[in-house]
Amino acid sequence: MIVCSCNALSHQDIEIAIHNGASRPAEIYSARKCKAKCGNCVPGIVCLLRSALQKAQSEQTHLNAA
C-alpha cells in the first residue's frame, strides 16, 4: 500500500526502514533519500512506526521473560 504518494513510499519501504533502525519519520524518509512534501502521509507513517516499535518492544519483553 502506498503511504506517501508524493514520494511513492509504501508500507513495505517503511517496514524496511524500521527494521534497519529508523525510529523517527525523518529517518524513514532519509532511508529512501526523500523528505516529506505535502505532509499528509506523516500521521500514517507515525502510526506504522509506533506499531512497529511497540511490537518490537513486546517481543523483546517476551524474550526476556522466557
Automatic annotation (TrEMBL):
Keywords of this entry: 2Fe-2S, Electron transport, Iron, Iron-sulfur, Metal-binding, Transport
InterPro entries (alphabetical): BFD-associated_ferredoxin, BFD-like_2Fe2S-bd_dom, BFD-like_2Fe2S-bd_dom_sf
The lineage's top-level taxon is Bacteria
Picking any one GO molecular function of the record gives: 2 iron, 2 sulfur cluster binding
Residues passing through the membrane, by range: none
Q: Which residues form the BFD-like [2Fe-2S]-binding domain?
A: 2-50
A single Pfam family it belongs to is Fer2_BFD
The similarity annotation says: Belongs to the Bfd family.
- Identify this protein by name: Bacterioferritin-associated ferredoxin
Q: Which organism is it from?
A: Gluconobacter aidae
